[in-house]
């Protein structure tokens, strides 16, 4: 009996060493992969900004005839975009670790890239410097780029750069074209409900464009309004007022297209 106990202890000790060896090897493999991917991402970022320096690219956008400065954007529009896209935009330094952790958890659950967790700064970097491939090294390069953007640009510059270059559907790029194209107005003249609608379009512009689907545009605006309520930017009453006006707009659109 005593001999059997000694054997069992030796087997247990051997298995413990084997598990430790396996875990150490797995950790080293993951660390190596992380270093390789990190280096690839950093190389992608450095190559991109070397070809087109951030300051020069920003100036090109600001010098465009269609450029709308931050001061001409309605506050309701600014609030709606940040609530829907990046609620901690004004306080983070390019990346939102909480959002990234939440997105990683959901991605692991789904075993797929179902949620990005990208900040407005990261989205801007992706749109301006990278393609849309969902590769880990591209995501890492995007992070390096976002941190650099926050160093070289003010928050207002990043926000206005973002809204002046994103796609709003129906062939409209930038908030200026979108405001004039959908409502025949300059951005500074937008009513609250119009600003709410435009804030939701870039999430899926071809789907949510009121020209393509007024009903889906209305649903997306409701989502944006709910985000604003959660962030305490508007009240339930204000949201309902805007949604009622949007309902009238959708009805008019349906009559035009139907």
Shape designation: globular
Helix share bin = over 70%
Largest β-sheet summary: none
Instruction: Quote the beta fraction.
Output: under 5%
Q: How are helices and strands ordered from N to C?
A: HHHHHHHHHHHH
Report the mean per-residue pLDDT as an integer.
85
Distance N to C terminus: 88 Å
Whole-angstrom Rg:
24 Å
Which consecutive residue ranges, at least 5 long each, have pLDDT under 50? 108-115
Estimated structural class: mainly alpha
Note the total helix count: 12
Kindly state the number of beta strands: 0
Features:
mainly alpha; 0% strand; 258 residues
What does this structure look like?
- With 258 residues, the chain is an all-alpha fold.
- Helix 9 crosses helix 11 and helix 9 packs across helix 12.
Summarize, please.
By secondary structure, the protein is an all-alpha fold. The protein has helices spanning 2-51, 54-62, 75-85, 97-110, 120-129, 136-152, 155-165, 174-183, 192-200, 205-208, 214-230, 236-257. Helix 1 (2-51) packs across helix 6.
Structural topology:
Layout (H helix, E strand, L loop, with lengths): L1 H50 L2 H9 L12 H11 L11 H14 L9 H10 L6 H17 L2 H11 L8 H10 L8 H9 L4 H4 L5 H17 L5 H22 L1
Helix pairs in contact: 1-6, 3-9, 3-11, 5-6, 5-7, 9-11, 9-12, 11-12
């Amino acid at each position: 009996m005593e001999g059997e106990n000694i054997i069992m202890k030796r087997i247990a000790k051997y298995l413990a060493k084997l598990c430790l060896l396996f875990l150490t090897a797995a950790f080293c493999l993951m660390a190596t992969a992380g270093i390789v991917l990190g280096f690839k991402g950093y190389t992608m970022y450095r190559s991109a900004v070397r070809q087109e320096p951030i300051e020069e690219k920003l100036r090109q956008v600001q010098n465009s005839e269609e450029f709308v400065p931050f001061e001409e954007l309605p506050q309701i529009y600014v609030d709606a975009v940040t609530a829907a896209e990046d609620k901690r935009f004004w306080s983070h330094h390019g990346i939102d670790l909480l959002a990234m952790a939440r997105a990683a958890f959901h991605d692991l659950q789904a075993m797929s890239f179902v949620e990005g967790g990208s900040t407005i700064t990261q989205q801007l970097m992706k749109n301006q410097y990278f393609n849309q491939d969902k590769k880990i090294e591209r995501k890492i390069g995007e992070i390096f780029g976002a941190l650099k953007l926050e160093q070289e640009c003010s928050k207002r510059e990043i926000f206005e750069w973002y809204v002046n270059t994103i796609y709003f559907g129906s062939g409209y790029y930038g908030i200026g074209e979108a405001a004039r194209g959908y409502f025949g107005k300059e951005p500074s003249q937008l009513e609250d409900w119009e600003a709410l609608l435009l804030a939701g379009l870039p999430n899926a512009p071809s789907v949510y464009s009121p020209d393509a689907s007024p009903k889906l545009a209305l649903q997306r605006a409701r989502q944006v309004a709910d985000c604003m309520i959660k962030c305490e930017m508007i009240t339930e009453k204000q949201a309902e007022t805007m949604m009622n006006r949007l309902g009238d707009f959708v009805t008019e659109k349906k009559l035009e297209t139907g």
